[in-house]
Amino acid sequence: LQGLRSTVRQLEDRFNWRYHYPYIFLNDEDFTEEFKEGIRSITESPVYFGKLPKEHWGLSPYVTEEKVKEALERNRDRYLYGGSYSYRLMCRYQSGFIYKHPLLKDLDYYWRIEPDVHYYCDLPYDPFKYMRDNKLVYGYTISPVEKPETVETFWDTTRKWILENPDYLQDKSFIHWVVNEKGRYTTCHFWSNFEIVDLSFYRSEAYESYFEHLDRAGGFFYERWGDAPVHSMAAAVLLRKEQIHWFEDIGYHHPGYSHCPKNPEMAARCVCGGGSDYMYRSMCSRRFGEVGNIFKDQVLELAALPDKK
After folding, report:
1. In terms of Cα–Cα distance, which of 182, 172, 146, 187 is closest to 244?
2. pTM, whole model, 2 decimals?
3. Rounded to an integer, what distance in angstroms lies between the CA atom of residue 91 and that of residue 102?
4. Residues 37, 149, 195, 301: which is the catalytic one?
5. What CA–CA distance (Å, rounded) separates 288 from 266?
6. Are 217 and 151 in contact, with CB atoms under 8 Å apart?
7. Pairing of strands 257-259, 138-140
8. What string of pLDDT tens digits covers the 309 residues of the chain?
């Protein structure tokens, strides 16, 4: 509760006091009255609380409990959350179901928030309007690499979907950010604990087909496919570079990484601690600036290359 109260208070102070956009909190269990009152007391903006539909939160119908238990035990000490069942439920839910919740049905965009994060900078404009006016689909602040052990078959599974569904591709794609010229998965991803997204993208037939393909492959449970690699791969494959936006001016910290803008005009609106220059050192951020779109036939050629670990 206190971690989320802190997040909401920062968002109100930095941005939302001007607009009073609503907050939506979702959980697999009913929220307590103490939690609801704790959030409502920190903001004058509308607040809604929802429970996840049972059919959205649980084991995928395409995996077996026995094999999942074996995978959790095998991966327990290999990486963070290697043995966590609940973490996998969360990643699958964020990947394929959050945008289907009834409380989000009338939203055109959403901004994902989490507890225990920090927003370092005042935001003197409406990012939702900015996304709409500039025809942007996906917005992010931090782009790290994923641990390869968690996504061992992710690209191979994805490239099979691409080859089976070429009609879902646009004429151009930003796939080179996530897969290099030799067909090797870079593991670059947008850190989805912060994302501002045009929800028509997640609701599209192409994204739904892609998620269903991934779910059938079982990697959310047998490996540890996170929603960040899933969202990022989908954006890179299905969107053009100019539809993706780095909110450089939104200084942000989530345990693990921090970003604060170096641009003097942007930095003047921020109060940052040390070690907040990750994005200016990030390989994935550098690659984002260096590569561009490629044509559809090139995407198909890239997907046809054997998966190179």
Report:
1. 172
2. 0.96
3. 19
4. 195
5. 20
6. no
7. unpaired
8. 999 999 999 999 999 999 999 999 999 999 999 999 999 999 999 999 999 999 999 999 999 999 999 999 999 999 999 999 999 999 999 999 999 999 999 999 999 999 999 999 999 999 999 999 999 999 999 999 999 999 999 999 999 999 999 999 999 999 999 999 999 999 999 999 999 999 999 999 999 999 999 999 999 999 999 999 999 999 999 999 999 999 999 999 999 999 999 999 999 999 997 778 999 999 999 999 999 999 999 999 999 998 665
Q: Does the active-site annotation cover 152?
A: no
- State the angle between helix axes of 33-40 and 2-11 in degrees (0 to 180), rounded to the nearest 10: 20
Contact 113, 11 (CB under 8 A): yes
DSSP codes joined into one string, 129-162: HHHHHTT--EEES---BPPGGG-TTHHHHHHHHH
The full DSSP string for 218-252 is: THHHHS---HHHHHHHHHHHHS-GGGEEE-TTS-E
**List of residues 6+ apart from 123 with CB closer than 8 A:** 14, 15, 249, 250, 269
**Which distant-in-sequence residues (6+ apart) come within 8 Å of 60 by Cβ?**
92, 215, 218, 220, 221
> Which tokens go with 134?
């500039």
Which are the contacts of 69, defined by CB distance < 8 A and separation ≥ 6? none
**What is the token pair recorded at 190?**
């947008």
In the block, tokens 């780095």 appear at 246
Measured distance CA(19)–CA(70) in Å, rounded? 48
- DSSP character at residue 304: H
